[in-house]
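re: the backbone from monday

yeah here it is again, tokenized this time
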């Protein structure tokens, strides 16, 4: 049995991972929370209220913990002080394994909403400069395949979000001349299953935990969409120079906002997200590694065409 602590356990992705850990029936799970346990607490999961600004409170909460998974919301803490305190406390409490709040792309270039990831990556390198004091893994699945099902919900906890691939209205935005930029797409269920496997894995885990469900080009995603939806996609192409200047010349944009984004910021951020995803893809930010695929070579990932066929079959 592995004693696992979950920081930020009320988040959508965290809940998916917690469910996978519970299903494994091999772990003692503790959720760290700023608040008292919510109603409807999941059986076999312990809750502990902590103060992320108090390192020693965190040390006490982490004593005896083997693996710490962080799902702390990045946007609410620009300097990432909560995660830094969590890392320091985990080291003092002799937590053996740590995973920071990642669960997305490999790179963060052109994606200011994920700048906190880079801050924490650099902090982890810094604390390990002289001696390896924190064994950590960056779980990186690319973009959730479930988002291509929007507006339909395909996971228990993760809500639908819009992307530059709009399967409902059969349209997409591509960067002119870069239609073959790479996008890694992994289902939420596959990420959760692989994280659960990694938690119970007794051997060495890679520092970069790439989880590659599907590695496809933007143009391949469009081709799959046209096949499944049974009609051509409307393709709007944008120029790099416009994107770099903060201009998105398209007839449509994203609508849904993540619940962590304040409503007054959503209109600005959805534009920033569209531009960021398009530009970052040109730098290879979404071409994640397959380190954990290799470690768990028997695991069968959901293929993009199979997944989307199940979602969109019979829908107009």
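seq for it, each position gets an aa:
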């Amino acid at each position: 049995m592995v004693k696992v602590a979950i920081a930020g356990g009320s988040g959508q992705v965290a809940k998916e991972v917690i469910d996978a850990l519970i299903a494994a029936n091999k772990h003692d799970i503790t959720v760290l929370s700023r608040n008292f346990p919510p109603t409807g607490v999941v059986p076999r999961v312990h809750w502990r209220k902590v103060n992320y600004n108090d390192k020693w409170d965190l040390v006490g909460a982490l004593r005896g913990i083997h693996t710490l998974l962080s799902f702390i919301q990045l946007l609410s803490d620009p300097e990432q002080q909560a995660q830094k305190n969590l890392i320091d406390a985990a080291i003092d409490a002799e937590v053996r394994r740590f995973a920071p709040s990642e669960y997305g792309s490999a790179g963060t270039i052109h994606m200011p909403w994920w700048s906190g990831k880079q801050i924490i990556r650099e902090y982890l390198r810094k604390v390990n400069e002289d001696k390896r004091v924190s064994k950590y893994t960056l779980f990186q699945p690319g973009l959730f395949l479930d988002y291509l099902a929007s507006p339909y919900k395909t996971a228990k906890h993760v809500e639908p979000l819009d992307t530059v691939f709009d399967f409902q209205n059969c349209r997409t935005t591509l960067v002119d001349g870069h239609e073959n930029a790479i996008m890694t797409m992994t289902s939420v269920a596959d990420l959760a299953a692989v994280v659960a496997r990694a938690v119970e894995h007794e051997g060495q885990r890679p520092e970069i935990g790439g989880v590659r469900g599907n590695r496809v080009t933007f143009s391949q995603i469009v081709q799959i969409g046209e096949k499944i939806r049974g009609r051509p996609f409307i393709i709007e192409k944008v120029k790099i120079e416009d994107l770099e200047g903060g201009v998105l010349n398209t007839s449509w944009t994203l609508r849904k906002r993540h619940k962590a984004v304040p409503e007054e910021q959503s209109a600005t951020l959805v534009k920033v997200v569209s531009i960021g995803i398009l530009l970052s893809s040109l730098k290879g930010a979404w071409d994640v590694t397959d380190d954990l695929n290799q470690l768990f070579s028997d695991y069968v990932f959901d293929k993009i065409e199979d997944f989307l066929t199940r979602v969109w079959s019979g829908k107009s």
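The mean pLDDT is 94. The chain has two domains: 2-141+188-210, 143-186+214-287+299-312.
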